[in-house]
Write a structure and sequence with these properties.
The complex is a heterodimer of chains A (430) and B (155). Chain A is α/β, with parallel strands linked by helices. In chain A, 41% of the residues lie in helices and 16% in strands. Chain A is built from 16 helices and 17 strands. In chain A, α5 packs parallel to α12, α6 runs parallel beside α7 and α13 runs parallel beside α16. Chain A is globular. Classes of the chains: A alpha/beta (430), B alpha+beta (155).
């Protein structure tokens, strides 16, 4: 199915009412109709899926693309002289071009296929970091980071005697820009921050962060896992140096992700993992490596995964990222409104602009118990520390219950969440 | 849908809210920590052994209703039992909550104690929650095995 035919299936849907004003906002689309494109819901008719922040469900066209690709065009890439291999290679490289266009990168060689965002961050840490950082250099992160954007830097800091510096959020959940700026020093070489917090849903001021970083000669890596599926991302407009995301959170297959890196940076970086596919000429004494991105794609990649991811990005583009952002922002607002009205529900602050993620606790009830009750009502949420234990420690929480949205969610889902929370509240009331 | 009340029976809600023996034993002869990395919950089990007899047993930590109630009920049934009794109960309890075959037969006295743990066996219908029910028992086993101060994980 092409992007054009998708558009004909999902024309501008009925206007989605704003919970705050009661009036329609923006173009919107119809999540109920859209849900039919996701076979998981046909097979689980009572499912209220509010865990897209962990991994999104897959539209039929992505699932079909994987099956079709394996059935029609599959062979290893960049190796065979036969036409089937060429077809597979073409599909893989076409996927790279689709990712380039999606992120508005300048050059398709700036896109490296990896397993997921975690691997992308580790790649930058081990390749760029190890080659460019010296003892005493500093890496600045926010206190909202996922373990995957802490541990690679922590390990590198231990190895190279770097300093890992943390910029705090304020009590409203926003990154404190003054505190952030105060932590920038001449030794700051890299800033690694998330675009949207996977715990609070706050959207970070990444444009300003990049400006501040570049004024001081530091590079910026942005973890775009939560942003890519739900808002426009333009790496050239952001002017960031690295941008990473996982395919599976963006309606694509699991096992494939993307590293965007500015070409001049990638070109100067040594291979991280070495092996087949990365070389021009190998001798026992000396090896000449390929140019990016192939230098960083050792071994046979997830070929079908990349092709499926490209289809998922087409799917997002067809719906329109502005429209998705509007839809999810409206629904997030509705969720905040509904949950705030339930006695005993304490929302984790998500700043002025919170997108698609609402974390909360129910007074006196452990998140795991809330999750089990919700599950009995078909409501799938994530409970626990969300791979952000330092943030939980700061908030003084053992964990939270997190509802996160996707394009297929609507107000009914929020209403069923709220109803199930009420059941949990009554069950555990003293 | 399974009735949630089979999982959250009154006795579990009660022990979850008001855990018994929720304290540190200053003169503990053995102690160990249990950790569930999935949810970050931690429990420390303290033992005061008098020879083979469990003279006192207590716990501290944070956890969900299931893990707190399981630890609380565990401390209640273990007081004045022998180490061998404790291990026999754990084996039986573990089998009951995982739906496995129980091993050895329990003595009449232990059967009665096992009955007190019966409300927790509702977790067998909730595979993700079995670890909550067994966390304190794993910590107990670590403490009894002399791995003082060690941390066991419910994996």
């Amino acid at each position: 199915m092409t992007t054009a035919s998708l558009r004909s299936i999902y024309p501008a849907g009925p206007t989605y009412p704003s919970p705050a004003s009661g009036e329609g906002i923006g173009r919107g689309f119809d999540p109920r109709r859209l849900r039919r494109e996701f076979p998981i819901f046909a097979n689980n008719p009572d499912l209220v899926f509010l865990d897209s922040g962990a991994s999104a469900q897959k539209p039929r066209q992505v699932i079909d693309t994987l099956a079709e690709f394996y059935q029609r065009d599959y062979a290893n890439v960049h190796r065979g002289v036969y036409s089937l291999s060429q077809r597979s290679t073409d599909a893989f490289e076409e996927a790279r071009r689709i990712v380039r266009a999606f992120l508005n990168a300048a050059d398709e060689r700036e896109l490296v296929f990896v397993r997921n965002a975690t691997e992308a961050i580790n790649l930058v840490a081990q390749s760029w970091g190890a080659a460019n950082l010296k003892p005493g250099d500093e890496i600045l992160i926010s206190d909202l980071e996922h373990h995957s954007n802490i541990l690679p830097w922590q390990q590198l800091s231990d190895r190279l005697a770097l300093r890992l510096v943390v910029a705090p959020t304020d009590e409203t959940g926003e990154l404190d820009l003054a505190q952030f700026e105060a932590r920038l020093s001449p030794r700051t070489k890299l800033i690694a921050v998330t675009h949207i917090s996977n715990v609070t849903g706050v959207v970070l001021p990444v444009t300003r962060i990049v400006e501040l970083a570049h004024e001081r000669g530091a590079l910026v890596l942005i973890d775009g896992c939560q942003a890519v599926p739900r808002m426009p991302v333009d790496v050239r407009a952001l002017a960031c140096d690295f941008y990473v995301f996982s395919g599976h959170k963006a309606y694509g297959p699991s096992g494939v992700g993307v590293l965007y890196g500015r070409y001049d940076l990638l070109e100067a970086m040594p291979p991280w993992q070495t092996g087949g596919g990365t070389i021009l000429r190998v001798g026992y004494d000396h090896t000449v490596y390929q140019e990016p991105p192939h230098r960083f794609e050792a071994g046979t990649p997830d070929i079908a995964g990349a092709v499926g991811l490209a289809r998922a990005l087409d799917f997002i583009e067809a719906l329109g990222r502005e429209a998705i952002a509007e839809h999810e922002a409206a629904l997030t607002g509705y969720g905040v409104d509904c949950l705030s009205r339930i006695p005993g529900v304490e929302l984790v602050a998500g700043g002025q602009r919170r997108l698609s993620i609402v974390s909360f606790n129910l007074d006196g009830v452990h998140p795991h118990d809330v999750g089990t009750v919700l599950d009995q009502y078909g409501v799938a949420v994530r409970v626990g520390h969300h791979c952000a234990q330092p943030l939980m420690d700061k908030l003084g929480l053992a964990g939270t219950v997190r509802a996160s949205l996707g394009v297929y969610n609507d107000k009914d889902d929020i209403d069923r969440l709220a109803a199930a929370i009420e059941v949990a509240r009554e069950m555990f009331a003293r | 849908m399974m009735d949630l009340r089979e999982l959250y029976q009154d006795i579990i809600l009660d022990h979850g809210r008001h855990p018994r023996n929720f304290r540190k034993i200053e003169q503990a002869t053995h102690f160990a920590q249990g950790h569930n990395p999935l949810c970050g919950d931690r429990v420390t089990v303290y033992l005061a052994l008098d020879g083979e007899r469990i003279a006192d047993v207590s716990f501290q930590g944070r956890g969900c209703a299931i893990s707190t109630a399981a630890a609380s009920l565990m401390t209640e049934v273990l007081k004045d039992k022998t180490i061998a009794d404790a291990r026999a109960l754990f084996a039986q309890f573990h089998a009951r909550v995982t739906g496995a075959e129980a091993g050895q037969d329990l003595s009449e006295e232990l059967v009665e104690e096992m009955d007190r743990l019966e409300p927790l066996t509702g977790v067998k219908a909730y595979p993700t929650r079995v670890k909550c029910a067994t966390l304190s028992w794993h910590a107990l086993e670590a403490a009894l095995s002399g791995r003082d101060g060690s941390t066991v994980k419910t994996e």
